[in-house]
Amino acid sequence: MSKKYKTKTGVTQFMPSIEEVQAMDDDMEGFCLACGETRPGCEPDARKYECESCGLFKVYGAQELAIMGLVY
User: Fold this and answer.
1) Tens of pLDDT along 38-67?
2) Domain total for the chain?
3) Is residue 9 part of a domain?
4) Would residue 62 count as lying in a domain?
C-alpha cells in the first residue's frame, strides 16, 4: 500500500512500502511517484520513465526508489 506525501514544493506524490519495493524488484516493475501505479518492464535503476497511467515521467525502478529514500 503506497502512502501520500508532500514534496518541499508542495506537490502531492506517492511512496511505496518496503514490501512493495521488494515485490517490484522481483517482478521488474517501476513505481510512479505522481499517481502510485506500477509499470511493468522497468530496470531496477530506472529513472524518469513515462507512466502508462498518468503520462508523467515519474516512474522509478525499485532499487532506485530505495537509494533515493522514497520508501517507508
Assistant:
1) 999 999 999 999 999 999 999 999 999 999
2) 1
3) no
4) yes
Residues 6+ apart with CB under 8 A from 39: 29, 30, 31, 32, 49, 51, 52, 53, 59
Predicted local confidence at residue 46, as pLDDT: 96
32 phi, psi to nearest 5 deg = -90, 120
Residue 43 lies in a domain: yes
* Cα gap 46→21, rounded to integer Å: 13
Beta-carbon-side half-sphere exposure of residue 55 (alpha carbons within 13 Å): 0
46 in a structural domain? yes
Closest alpha carbon to 40 in 20, 24, 55: 24
